[in-house]
Design brief:
The protein is of the alpha/beta class. The protein has 11 helices and 13 strands. The strands form 2 sheets. The protein has a 7-stranded mixed β-sheet, sandwiched between helices.
Length: 290
């Protein structure tokens, strides 16, 4: 999970000259702005127009030559595609597509950078950090506890991953971070990402001066000190490189981490938590909320 080297090699091998026969199609959960932004970036990076279906408008259809589907969104990722279509899917937090009978296993474009990148950015923002608490609720995130612990240790950070039994437990779990953690991080967990929960986390972080690190721009907007994530554009471009790699005969890893990192900062939250946003950090930020 936390190594991006095989991915980098895979993406570098994407070569239009080696494209194999077949047709690529796309399926979007809806025609919402985020999905269209990622899909538009996908088409531009892929280098040709790709037909697409909008699940919100009805059942998708697939031309006879279709062999690869690119799915945008959780609903599209979970759709039951006919065999033997290969599926590359993105923008599907907390979802890993299983391998139904007769269908080739696909590849997931991650919503976050590799854990290595995440810990590097957190260390830059908070050089003195030694203890980090990670909260998760969607079951699939529990599979990454060991990777988080190992990657954190490699950066001198003791990581404690905490399963949240229910939303109602969040305030008490946050209180337990006092004196036991220097910051906390939230992955793109759809079960935890509610407006009420984000407000609880923001208020706790600001009142106690404990930085809250997120994984999406929306978390930063709602009060996280910073988020280390991936833009919709980069997800679309990474999906295009993955499809080109498939067409070149390459085998994809189960999870593909986009190489670009979207760093979003919240100046008010940083001040509350006594984080120093240096000129270098500010120059590298993609967004800065006041």
């Amino acid at each position: 999970m936390n190594s991006s080297r095989p991915l980098a090699l895979c993406l570098l091998l994407a070569c239009p000259a080696a494209v194999l026969a077949g047709e690529t199609v796309a399926v979007l959960s809806s025609d919402g702005g985020a999905y269209m932004e990622a899909f538009s970036a996908f088409q531009a990076a892929y280098g040709s127009e790709v037909p697409y279906s909008n699940l919100a408008a009805g059942k998708p259809s697939f031309p006879p030559a279709a062999d690869i589907v690119v799915a945008f969104g959780g609903k599209a990722a979970n759709y039951s595609y006919p065999a033997p279509l290969q599926v590359v899917y993105c923008m599907a937090p907390g979802i890993f597509v299983s391998d139904p009978a007769g269908r080739t296993k696909g590849a997931k474009i991650s919503l976050i950078p590799s854990f290595t990148e995440i810990f590097l950015r957190i260390k830059e923002l908070q050089p003195g950090i030694r203890r980090l608490r990670v909260f998760w609720m969607t079951p699939v995130f529990g599979n990454f506890d060991d990777n988080l612990t190992k990657e954190g240790a490699a950066h001198g950070i003791a990581v404690t991953a905490v399963k949240v039994p229910s939303i109602e437990d969040m305030p008490s779990l946050l209180r337990q971070t006092r004196g036991t953690a220097d910051a906390f991080w939230l992955p793109p967990d759809p079960l935890l990402l509610t407006p009420e929960n984000l407000m609880i986390m923001r208020d706790f972080s600001w009142d106690n001066g404990i930085p809250f690190y997120g994984s999406t721009k929306g978390m930063t907007r709602e009060g996280a000190a910073a988020s280390i994530g991936v833009s919709f554009k980069d997800m679309g471009e990474t999906a295009a490189r993955a499809v080109l790699a498939l067409r070149a005969g390459e085998k994809l890893p189960e999870i593909i981490f986009p190489p670009a990192v979207e760093l979003t900062l919240n100046a008010s939250a940083a001040r509350k938590c006594k984080l120093q946003l240096t000129p270098e950090i500010l120059r590298r930020a993609n967004y800065l909320f006041p």
